[in-house]
Each structure stands twice: as structure tokens, then as C-alpha cells.
Amino acid sequence: MSGRRREKVGDLLRDEVSQIIQREMSDPRLGFVSITRVEMSPDMKYARMFVSVMGSDDERASSLVALNNASGFIRRMLAPRLRMRTIPDVSFRLDRSMEHAENVARILRDLEPELRAAADNSSATDEGTPA
Length: 131
Prior knowledge:
This protein is of the alpha+beta class. The protein has helices at 3-24, 57-69, 71-78, 97-128; strands at 32-40, 46-54, 89-94.
């Protein structure tokens, strides 16, 4: 299958599975879950869904277990919603990219005073040198 078709199917799956998680699943282990991206296998029989979960490491782990345990339920709920010959098997993986971005932003915020001081010293040195 073409990469563009896999991408479109992945986007559709992300939207539908997000709705299923929000509206039709009532597992107490689920925290605030967001599907960040979907990787489809070349034959589109498998979908790996990357999720971001707000909370502690234990809450993330229990949410991930709950999602993977519910993969059969999610697949059954997808069947009437999708016009596909084969509904892909879904699995869930933790996506830590948001957490990583947050850490980088925090580090940059912490370094901001030092960067400003270095920039001020650099401009003061440049002003004192004749061109």
C-alpha cells in the first residue's frame, strides 16, 4: 500500500480510537490518554498507536496495560465504523516525546538568565572593539 494511504488510515484510526477511549471505555485504570501518532504496517493489518498519558509512571503503566488489554474490544468497536476489508490489530506504546519536549523547555527556561548574561557580555565586548 502507498505511504499516503497508510497515513490516511492511521489518521482515521487515531480519531476513531480516541472517541472509543473517551466515550465507550470506563476502565478506572485509564488516565488522561491522548493518541499522538499511529504507525501502520505495510499491509495495514497492524496499527501501533503511540499514546501520551498524564500522570505518574505507575498511572502511565496501568493505562498502557488497560489499553492493550482492551485492544480486542477496541477492534470490535472499530468494525462498524470503518469501511475496510480487514480491521487492523491495534497495540499501544507509550510516547514520551511530549515529556521530552517539556524537559527541554524547562532546561531552556532555567538557562535563560545565563544566556542573556552571555549575550549582554558579548554585545558589550563588540561595542568596545573598533571596526
